[in-house]
Amino acid sequence: MRDRKLLLGILMCVLIAVAEGSCTLDCGTNVWDGWYGFAEGPQYCNVCLCRGSDVRCTEFQCGHPNPCPTAAPVDTQTVEFSISRGRDDVEENELTGSIRYRSTDLELFFDGYDNWYQIIGLRWSSVDIPQAATIISAKVIFKCDEEGYGQPDLLLAFDSSSSSLPWDGSNPPSSRSLTAPTRWIISEAWSVASTYESPELSSSLQGVISSMFWESGNSLSLIIRRTSPTTERSRRVAESRNGDGVGPVLRIVYSTTPGHTPEPTPEPTPEPTPEPTPEPTPEPTPEPTPEPTPEPTPEPTPEPTPEPTPEPTPEPTPEPTPEPTPEPTPQPSTGQTPFPTPVSPPIPSEVTVAELSKCLRSEDISGVQAREGWATKISNSDSTTFQTDGWVHDTFFVRVDMKGMSLNRMMKYSLELNLDIERVNGGSPGTVVSMELMLWNENYPYYYESEFVWPLTMYQQHPERFDLMETMVLKQGTTNTFVTESEFSPMPTIGDLSKRLWVRVQLSGSPGTNQERYTFTNFCLTRAAEQRVAPPLLSSFAEKVTILKPPSPSNDILTRQVNCPWDRPQHPNNIIQFEHLTVTPEGDVTLPESVSVIVSGNSFTRSSYRVITVPDSSEIIFLDEEITLNVNSFLIYGRVSIGSETCRVQGPILVTFHGERSDPAYLGFGSKGLAAIGPSARVGMFGRRFSPTWTRLSRTLTAGDDRLYTQEVVNWYPGQEILVTPTIWDDNDLGTPNENEVKTIVSVQPSAEGGSIIQVDKEFRHSHYAGIEYQAEVALLSRTIQLQGAVDEDGYGGHVIIAEGASGHIVAVSSRFMGQTNVLGRYPFHFHHLQEAPPSVSSDGVIHGAKFAENAVRDTYWRCYTIHGTNSSLVTENVAFNSTGHCYYIEEGIEERNTLSFNLAAHIKVIGTPLAGGSQSGEVVFEDSSPGGLLSGQRAMPTDGAASGFYVTNAFNFFEGNAASGGWAGYSFPGLRRCIGRYRDSTYDPSSRNLGSWNGNSAHSNGGHWISAGGIYVGGVLEFENGDTQNGRLRYSSGRASRATRELNDNTEPEWLGERLFMTFRNTRVFLSNRGLLHWGDRVEVIQYEAHDVKRSLTLFGEGWFHDAIVSGYTNNIEAGYEHRQHDGFQFYDIAIKSIVTNIEFRNYNVAPCQSDGYPGSTTVYRDPLYCSADVTAGAYIHAHLNVIFSGIYHSDFYKPQHISSTNAIRYVNVDSELILGMKIANSGASRYFNFIDSDGSATLTGVPTVVGSNLNWWQICDDCTFHSEWSAWTCPVHTSTGIPRSVVHLWAVTPEITGVNGGMRHAPECFESAPAEWSHCTVGYVAHWGTGPQYNTPLRSSEITQNMGITGPTGVDWFMWLSGGAPRVLQINPSQVPGGGLMFATNYPAGTTFNVRAYNRYTDVMDVTFTEGGSVSDVWSDTTGTTYYFDGRSLFLQPKLPPSLDQLEQGLFMERANTRIYDISYVYYIEVTADCPSNGNGFCSVMPDEVAPPAYRACQ
User: Fold this and answer.
1) Stretch (H or E) spanning 225
2) What is the dihedral of CA 291, 295, 297, 300, to 10 degrees?
3) pLDDT the model gives residue 1172
4) In the predicted model, is pLDDT for residue 46 greater than 90?
5) Strand pairing of 829-836 and 799-802?
6) Is 624 exposed, middle or buried, given 0-12, 13-18 or 19+ CB atoms closer than 10 A?
7) Three-state SS for 867?
């Protein structure tokens, strides 16, 4: 409820402002969390907020001192806050960034013992200052620990965040965003045990307290550092928390009188001020009125009448009459008016970038190396001097540490430094010949000083490890000041210059033995101010995929409050105010049975409660007021209601959960959280409706911008926080910069082109791309209901669990510092064993089922949203940011038919070391039996080493419109062959379940931890060790693991009885990832797909169809990062994995010079050995297998491709033909037998169906074939004048003595991979075309065969096999993929050999057939059964083919999509040839046969 006094104040605010003429407040009145706002005229960036008698403007003051009513008398309070933990007052080494947590004193600012300069960080938790307070005074009280010296010159500033994080290595004092600093020069001496006050800090503190998101009980931090670099070793020494148990004390004097400022405005006459007599706290009294009856009716009549009397007396008498009519009743009923929509400003065509300069402190210049060692740093004041060790060299390197400084390739920079050189022992020093600004190449490991190979030596041996950025020249008119020759732009963008920037100086003169000194002053890097053309607004946001968006909320949800819980309590005749309940001394409250308890802003009489219990027959209702609750545990057996679906609250309401790991677990549901338990339990929380909860950019946001453009109109408002996700390759905390950026909204305006324009408080440090290919997400992090855990350094936050039998609808709630690392079941938001729980609301307003919607979870200690043992729940329109472990988490594998739609996951962090491994096998890890907290690096769930945005243990759920940014993977589908947890003894196989649906999902910036991870990852196995479901640990293998997706009528059926199903991913976009999509399963389809700036568009294992897609090698996102220069289009597999690729458009695959950075049009040298390898086989392009469209796996000799790959309807846009195909040449079966069929000639640009084979002339079927040197591949047309189409077939030719027994496979370990050094004994012969070789005056068209038998080749020619060991006495042939026959096979034997030839089923012998001997080759060819052989005295002739009952063509055993067919592979039918000839004792005939292929029986076809 809003009282009349406030309404009067607003009206006066408007009238006075208009009368003064300095502000035109003509855009209406709006309510934001109790503040009334005015958008000023056509000025799009200026919003004024009025509360009571206080006016604040978000960007600049309205031009009048205070247009609001007279301030009421001041009611001040003085409070003191002590440091609560030893880790809350810390010392940070300025030079190294290391933090000391346990020091017994605090030295400001020089540590005399360790001889370093330091930054002090002080943090006070639970600062109970209300958000509306006016800070009159704020000082820090220090107690002297020991005497100091000098006159420390200090700067004191508060952390500007609304709740300061604890100190740790990733959040040190030096990293914080600060308020305006206050200077403190301490001239007086300190006496031990005496106390001393800091200067006044009230103005700095006011900015923090006035933040829209400051809440009473939040944490405050103060950072103290020296004003400027100096060699003066001044200090004062204060007690720390670890010293005297208290540490520095923060003393604050504040007022809660509405509108009070330290200097009250003199406008009204003094008469009104006596009126405070009615003020004896009447203000809170209107709030209790809801208790007898619902709120809407009391508002016009309650006792506000005595209260507003103070207000009418201020100046205008006309005001009282208009005041009741404008908004007496609408205001309470609406509760939240839409944000004003003033006229949109024109879209600027240019963007202004302000100049920014960073001048280095002495400690930033951290080293000079002039010979084999580092020079000695001998001074540390405004200048920095280094002295060499007695030897003068003609080159030296200066190492510079510009921590926190970035360089953006879109901007221009200059560097200036002053360098003086002198000889220590006299003589003329060297003069500078050249000076170069250099960057350490990030692709090489960086060694710290203790292990660093000296840069001078390193540069001489490996110049490629330094990238030249710019030369420097002597500044005109000076003798020792050097500047960069011109303004330069870095290539590429460098997120953090820490330990990467070097200056290389070359001197004239000869080396000598005299010492030299190098003195640096005025070392400054400056970003130039500039006007640049603004990026265009996008008119469309995708090409191939369809961007799905949630339905827009009704206007009623946005603007009205109906069916509020306080209007329809469960027990209307038994209503109690919370403050009237009994509280035990321990802080426990249990509601009576069968009551409705009302919570208002004044209900909580204690600063904190231990356990609040709501019995099953009772309910607790929170009014729509500003409410703050501190509690350990909230146990719900009945109902908790904070608003309803049609009655959204704007509060703000803040609940903070307190507790430690050692607390008792209340009723088995842990501590520090809310637990709803049992069939009567209902938790309904409904914050204000913000729509959308996240959107995407409509225009590229470049570093330096402070305004962004969104695709959709948003109803967000000033003071809220937003997130913009990164658009770089890979987002993780290990090795790549964190480019997620959180900003505070200053203003929101609609754009004339659609969407909204959002002004933020600070410029963006990084660029965020928005092109038609993809756009960064923009998410709202603030909500009007907030749940948070009291900050815990080791990951023990709050949690919410809706447990079995209960129902929960948690909607539009924000959560922070929630989840309890490695405590199973303790997650920020958790559905726990609810079984079937579709969400609904009954006609009487009672909620049923499970729904998480419109929430924002951030900074979690474990997980985000968990679905556990629950089916049919709804998780929609949520945001998650900065999660530890998997975020959206489907827990045990039993969960099905849940809907996850329109959710965003961003910046997902693994626990412990990310799972990797050097191959597709990945890594195997186990659960830790007794894992510690966040800092332990241990895992209760082993898969958290591969944390993903969406973790799906059962695919039979519905995924629509979600987005995953960052993480080991965006979406992870681990294979669970049995459920875990409660359902571990079930025989149900979750890995066999197919996708319920998949539509409109996206992923980006994922997969950098491992070679096979990426945006969407279907792989890995989670199982019990040794299959022991009772005592076995959970074991996770992160790598390749197949799954069979089948339709099962009964979960107990064997999986092979179910219908084979394809796991179908439709309408998907991936970008900036390692792998776009990787699927290790039996069957998969990827349809309607876009992949941009990915290392490989996708990898399909099993039968796979890739259809209807756009794949971009690179986009216009020049900030994408290093890895976007490696991009594969599609990689064909090397054995048995069928891939059909159809209707794909490949874009932007261009040849880049070896020494280029890979960006189009760039001339920057980039010496990465990945791109400039000297080991390039003749005929192979230098980018082979790294930067091509089609490639194959080449490394193995054991694994060889059959005909498993086909393409159709391929298109190229801006593609250099050299990069269409890039199979790497290797001495391996996978390389020799690489092939695919281009069904329409579009992939090879031949225009006709084409057979494609490797570089060997084995693939030259006839003279109509073409060798492409740029691809190192042959192409042959499929159709010829004979009318018999050419194809690719495969068979096994096995001799037991060499390769295995009874059709088995055997290989020497050293022959598994390609191994040229040992190849002599791996090679056992060759296979060739009939009628080729020297005897026929033609080259032998052949391919080696090895101990790893298996031959793939073209039809249209006949095959001859020669074994170097001679003629085998037993030969087994498996025509595994020769559909319909049509292949003649021959091998030579000594004259006089006789044969017994039969065919059999490898497994059953059922098809035991004896072959008959023919009289000619024609007899063999004409036998349609393939059971005739012929021996002409030199060559044995066979036609290897399957019987009709097994033949793939006859039986329709193939995969076919889009007029493209690939036949199945059969390993069942074997032809065994037994030769009767004298033996040599080694399995061969004693007589070596002739090495001559038979003459061609038929012309090549």
Assistant:
1) strand 218-226
2) 110
3) 39
4) no
5) parallel
6) buried
7) strand
Q: What is the pLDDT of residue 1309?
A: 55
- Residue 842 is given by DSSP the state -
Instruction: Kindly report the number of other CB atoms within 10 A of residue 394's CB atom.
Output: 15
Contact between residue 704 and residue 353 where contact means Cβ atoms under 8 Å apart: yes
The SS3 assignment for 832 reads strand
CB distance 904 to 883 below 8 Å? no
Count other Cβ atoms within 10 Å, centred on residue 517: 18
- Cβ atoms of 1401 and 1407 within 8 Å: the answer is yes
Distance set, CA 786 to CA 687, 817, 868 (Å): 9, 11, 23
Q: Enumerate residues 6+ apart whose C-beta is below 8 A from 1389.
A: 1367, 1431, 1434, 1435, 1436, 1475, 1477, 1485, 1489
User: How far is the C-alpha of 582 from the C-alpha of 592, rounded, in Å?
Assistant: 10
The answer to whether residues 1068 and 1016 touch, using CB atoms and an 8 Å cutoff, is yes
Of the pLDDT bands very low, low, confident and very high (cuts 50, 70, 90), residue 804 is: very high
Retrieve residue 143's tokens. Answer: 């107690």
- Of the candidates 800, 802, 824, which has an alpha carbon nearest to the alpha carbon of residue 814? 800
**String of DSSP letters for 102-129:** --SEEEEEEETTTTEEEEEEEEEEEE--
CA-to-CA separations, 515 to 291, 389, 428, 1358, in angstroms, rounded: 86, 6, 11, 81
Assign residue 617 a region: left if phi > 0, alpha if psi is -120 to 50, beta otherwise?
A: alpha
Between these two residues, 667 and 867, which has the higher pLDDT value? 867
Question: 1153: Cβ–Cβ under 8 A, 6 or more apart, which residues?
Answer: none
Residue 1201 CA to residue 395 CA, distance in Å, equals 56
Which of left, alpha, beta for 1303 (phi over 0: left; psi -120 to 50: alpha)?
left
What pTM value is reported for the model?
0.74
Give the pLDDT confidence of 1140-1184 residue by residue, as tens digits.
Answer: 999 999 999 887 544 333 333 333 333 333 333 333 333 333 333
Instruction: Kindly list the distances between the CA atom of residue 1220 and the CA atoms of 399, 857, 1108, 1149, in Å, as whole numbers in the listed order.
Output: 44, 44, 18, 8
Q: Length of the chain in residues, anyone?
A: 1501
Q: Is the pLDDT of residue 514 over 90?
A: no
pLDDT at 378 over 90: no
CB-based contact 1106:1131 (threshold 8 Å): no
- Which residues lie across from 858 on neighbouring strands? 816, 881
Q: Phi and psi at residue 1144, in whole multiples of 5°?
A: -115, 135
- Give residue 517's pLDDT: 81
DSSP letter string, 499-523: EEEEEEEEESS--BSS-EEEEEEEE
What gap in Å lies between CA 1170 and CA 1218, rounded to an integer? 18
Distance CA 925, CA 886 (A): 16
Write phi, then psi, for 698 (nearest 5 degrees). Answer: -110, 5
The residues pairing with 589 across neighbouring beta strands, listed in sequence order, are: 612
Please tell me the distance from the alpha carbon of residue 640 to that of residue 813, in angstroms, as a whole number: 14
pLDDT tens by residue, 1449-1493: 989 999 999 989 999 999 889 999 999 999 998 889 999 999 999
Which residue in the block uniquely carries the two structure tokens 């054995």? 1135
Are 1022 and 975 contacting, i.e. CB atoms less than 8 angstroms apart? yes
Pick from 893, 892, 868, 888: which is nearest to 878 by CA?
888
Longest Cα–Cα distance of the chain, Å, equals 132
Pairing of β 948-952 and β 888-890: parallel
pLDDT in tens, 428-464: 777 888 888 877 665 554 443 333 455 666 676 677 6
Cα separation of 536 and 1144, whole Å?
28
Q: Quick check: 962 and 904 in contact, CB under 8 A?
A: yes
Distance CA 883, CA 910 (A): 9
- H or E stretch including 1231? helix 1229-1232
Distance (Å) of CA 586 to CA 608, 660, 877, 944: 10, 16, 39, 38
Kindly state the tokens that stand for 818. Answer: 């929630």
